[in-house]
Amino acid sequence: MMTVVGLYPNLVRYRNPNPRKSVVARNTVSKVEADVVVIGSGIGGLCCGALLARYKEDVLVLESHDVAGGAAHSFDIKGYKFDSGPSLFSGLQSRGPQANPLAQVLDVLGESLPCATYDSWMVYIPEGEFLSRIGPTEFFKDLDKYAGSNAVQEWQKLLDAVLPLSTAAMALPPLSIRGDLGVLSTAAARYAPSLLKSFMQMGPRGALAATKLLRPFSEILDDLQLKDPFIRNWIDLLSFLLAGVKTNGVLSAEMVYMFAEWYKPGCCLEYPLDGSAGIVDALVRGLEKFGGRISLQSHVEKIVVENDRAIGVKLRSGQFIRAKKAVVSNASMWNTLKLLPKEVVPKSYSDRINSTPQCESFMHLHLGFDAEGIRDDLGIHHIVVNDWERGVDADQNVVLISVPSVLSPNVAPPGKHVLHAYMPGTEPFELWEGLDRRSAEYINLKAERSEVMWKAVERALGPSFRREKCEVKLVGSPRTHERFLRRNRGTYGPAVQAGKDSFPGHSTPIPHLYCCGDSTFPGIGVPAVAASGAIVANSLVSVTQHSHLLDAIGI
Fold first, then answer.
1. For the whole model, what pTM was predicted?
2. Residue 539's closest CA among 522, 516, 509, 519?
3. Cys staple from 517: which of 25, 44, 104, 172, with CB 3.0 to 4.6 Å?
């Protein structure tokens, strides 16, 4: 949602000249074996690798680019530090059994993540514009003004039904899950009393509703007979921002978890003071603290399979690295398939991957500009919806804008602002397919398709903003995603519809080969990929080791 090395065509020109110490680029691997080799240093891969190191496994994370982070990496141009991917975070500093999965991993690693907190974002919709606040009461004022009393009543009805469900949705700590029968010990038996208590507190009706947590969230909305157009559009927007699909495709459990983080008393949103790079650096520090290794500029050419099991990887340089215990791919399902010898892949497995629908790709706009004249009350986040009728998943319709420099002075030079605008998973790859990145056609298409983002930025920043005064102007396209993030067709991820299909698990038909990231359960988004990495790491150690880890952080 993506250093320069991840977004822009000239790798050398835009490389960070001052990489952080913990992720200094390396392109050779001195020790040519490990217990576990992890392909890719996205958040899922780093969570998996760091936890395995915490479990005292010899782990090596291989990253193709010269900076860690995958789709969450950051890049620096002229002192402007840009997020390339996610910028809307919550629960990063939470602790305990119900904490965000990423927060639980950081807790295990003993890593802190300094954050600024806030509670609102600006919304620009056909009905008008308003400052949307999270929490249980503030949003009602905006609803009454822009949607009417019926919307207020339906929103209250939704909160009354959904917030109690969060107790059941969050009863099992994400870090307790593993991908084998050991889960009966680390999750089911360990947390059965609290799970039973939560169901008893909900009563029969609530317990019945909890059975829908693995069904599409739209079913809960339909059962509640929520019909107000604004309410349905708004929830579709939240769902799309969370998982890349509308409410008819997202798991109810994901939405209930989000409601619990955003609409309970005392809740807040968070932004790491060093941007998404702060998250990546914390995970890399944790990895290396416990003896794990990361090798940058180490492009995996193929997964080596012998005697029907994964035994290691071969790098583009020709170097072979043996994995004594397992290979874990943090690449997408489609890109992982390309790394495997065709003759060892069961047809049913390749057919499923090739038939899995994909979310569309992204357009990005990264800007660095002088803050002089820009209003003092500018917020960090802005969401622009041009037309509800077209749907939040329509191309050129929804633009997200992040201006993290309003909260963190660490990400821009003094007196400057850094801005990242993007269209989230709605840009058709077909428009870009086959275009030469140096051609006039490609350059003109970037200008044409980025115009809606420019207009959204101008609307959010006001008349004092001028395009021509930007010191940094960069446009990223789906081709950029495909090339540098190794994302098949530049996709956001699998367009898995809850109730019709499910995200794949983490094991594969190839023994000793596992997958984590947004192509696996629980799906797309920072909490989900962190959970997937943790599940794989837990699955590769004994139940005793896993239980001791849970004891260590008191959950």
1. 0.90
2. 516
3. 44
